[in-house]
Amino acid sequence: MSAVNLPSNYLPILVFFFIALAFGVVTILMGYLVRPKRPYLEKLHAYESGILPDTDARMQFPFRYYLIAMLFVLFDIEMVFLYPWAVSFNKLGLFGLIEMVLFLLILFVGYFYAWRKGALEWD
Amino acid sequence: MELGITILVTVLQIAAVLGVVLTHVAYLTYAERKILSDMQDRLGPMEVGPHGLLQPLADGLKLFFKEDIIPAGANKIIFSAAPILVLVPALIGFAVVPFGRDSLQIGAIEITPYITDINIGLLYILAFSSLGAYGILLGGWASNSKYSLLGGLRSAAQVISYELPLGLALVGPILLSESLSLTDMTVAQGGGIWRWFIVSQPVAFVIYMICAIAETNRLPFDLPEAESELVAGFFTEYSGMRFSFFFLAEYANMILVSCIAVVAFLGGWQAPLPALEFIPPIVWFLAKVYFLLFFYIWLRATVPRLRFDQLMAFGWKVMLPIALVNVLLTSIVKYFLNQWAEK
Asked: Is A100 inside any structural domain?
């Protein structure tokens, strides 16, 4: 349908993306013309329940968040593996089933290892 | 010429979907306030218009004319971009949702009840909804406020933790329909309420609903914006239109996850009984989505908020193993049912 070598089904998504983006940008830019702008020092301080912030907010935060993010990446990749497998389940037959059971078992071993090591504990 | 008409139709479709979604978002806030107030035995908004019906418009206009404050210590570019980064993924997910069955035929132009039907629809929605977490995290970090940073971190941790069981719960419907396309998934559930995937995948449905509530930061999982401890969480420093974008994205996401739940488990636009098929499919679709949205609000009025360690433990130690076992059992049962059917 066009010179662009893309499946035409994906074209509306691209159009939608730009329309949604334009909606956000244009609304904010239009608001710029009508909204008041009276900044002063007290207003621009970060909110801290009425107390002046005395330190930068970007301080150390718990290591837990990093661990959770790392576990997420592992499990998320595994989840993405399951999707094509689920779609072609009937074509793969017994071979596909056994392969996936093995895959999930290995995953479970890793999962319980993480659990026993305390990676899932928050405190 | 042909291409021009196609693009024009697409743009009109997108405009229609965007308009409908934004109207629904506006009136969902109204419905939420009204239903909550009814459940708490008070009246809710009554002043603007009859029974407060124009309240969402008044709120929108007010936010539009509010000053846009960027805190002194904030990273200006990231701070400004974050609301749009949250809003865009929440809106473009609707591109693949099939709202009805029949296409509208006007002359040579065919108007489909969905913007586009791609064979990886579900994957596409999940991929883009994950991008929303970036906006939350960046917005919280760029504000340079302690509440925002903590809210952003919490939110990111929560969203990624609950995305795993959510994605795994959807493997069930994918296995049964053997497709990632939302249209094919709906068609696979035709023929009556007993063919809906909620009947064959009840565990996956419950997991999906719980995770969807956590993904959209709704009560009882609204830890990222727990008012009593974090003021407003990651959008504490936001005001005016940028604040409203976070709000808009949250409600649009609520509608989107309800649409996916309806398509994946409740038969999409299919009627529950063949005898009820005279009612247009789009009415069924809307009725199911409205019911789920009502359920969300109902839940907010009923259950108290969790603690953060409880939330993470629940996600990782309860939801994730159940979802994995569900995938395992579903695939084994499906394999043997296939074998049995062949004999």
From this structure: yes
Residue A32 falls within a domain, yes or no?
Answer: yes
Say which of A15, A34, A38 has its CB closest to residue B14.
A15
Q: What is the pLDDT of residues A3-41, one digit of tens each?
A: 444 567 788 888 888 988 998 888 888 888 888 888 777
- Are the beta carbons of B178 and A35 separated by less than 8 Å? no
Cα–Cα distance measured from residue B168 to residue B159, given in angstroms and rounded to the nearest whole number: 14
How many Cβ pairs within 8 Å bridge chains A and B?
208
What ipTM does the predicted assembly reach? 0.83
Sign of CA dihedral B16, B22, B28, B31: negative
The answer to whether A65 contacts B156, with C-beta atoms less than 8 Å apart, is: yes
Mean pLDDT score, A100-104: 89
Kindly state whether residue B111 falls inside one of the protein's structural domains. Answer: yes
Domain count, chain A: 1
Number of domains in chain B: 1
Q: Between A64-87 and B121-142, two packed helices, what is the crossing angle to 10 degrees? A: 170
pTM: 0.89
Both tokens of B169, joined, read: 């719960």
One-letter amino acid of B186 = T
Mutation target to probe the A interface, by most A beta carbons within 10 A, among B1, B7, B10 is B10
Residue A121 lies in a domain: no
